[in-house]
Amino acid sequence: TDKTLNQMKTKLNTLYWRRNHIAHQSDRSERNAEKKDITKQQVEEFIENIDKIVAAITEEVKKM
Asked: Which pTM was predicted?
């Protein structure tokens, strides 16, 4: 459904934003260059979301 697609987009955009901060800004704040924290829970949520998205895409491809 549209709601599911929007949720997927939001989760991917959040992961993409976080990845860019880590890869391009040494995971530091733009305002004061302080290192940002990342928790184990955040990492686990990112992994879980990606697993769900990959599973959903795989199911759609199988329907073709």
From this structure: 0.72
